[in-house]
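Much of our argument rests on the idea that a fold can be written as discrete symbols. Part of our work consisted of pairing the sequence of a single chain with a tokenised description of its backbone. No coordinates are needed to read the tokens, only the vocabulary itself. The record that follows shows the chain in one-letter code together with its fold in token form.
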Amino acid sequence: MSLPAADVASWLQANPEFFEEYADLVAEIFIPHPHGGRAIPLAERQILTLREKNKLLEGKLGELLQFGEENDQIGDKVHKLCVALLQSRDLAGVLGTLNYHLQEHFRVPHVAVRLWGGEADETLAEFAPVGDAVRELAHSLATPYCGPYVTDEVLGWLGESAPRLKSFAQVALKGEDGPFGLLVLASEDPQRFYPEMGTLYLARIGELAAAVLARCID
């Protein structure tokens, strides 16, 4: 009567001394090569298994190193943006600096900002009137939104490029009394801003921009 393979495996795990008592037998066991072809000793098969596991670990380590390098690069860009915003002398300078760094350093092709409350500068497009839906959206954004959808009003802020845009990030600009603006990033690439992406750096950029802008419009 043959035993189920699972039972044999469980028994061997519970009785590791078997491999010491029958070391010669283990050395004589040959099993199929994992990639076909000739049969190989059990010990060689164990070596192949360890090599495969090592390759997987090396791959995961490579991914972690890549993510770390990418995060370092993004962190450096955020730092440079912070310094540049602090050096800006007025509202127009802050808005220009924000737009420049997002487009040139973060490679975001399309950026729009709308502000309300405080002292409005009617010469700036950023103070164009916004609807109640936009304000409600800003209040509802506990974290940045990333995905394929924006309202028609928000889409209209992006000008002639609007029909070609496929993905968006929307970041509420918040002060002590709540949201006072909305930062919108957009791209023709549908995968640039996708729902599952991390939003840590987007949130930090929004907090940084909001802190500097709030000082200019209060």
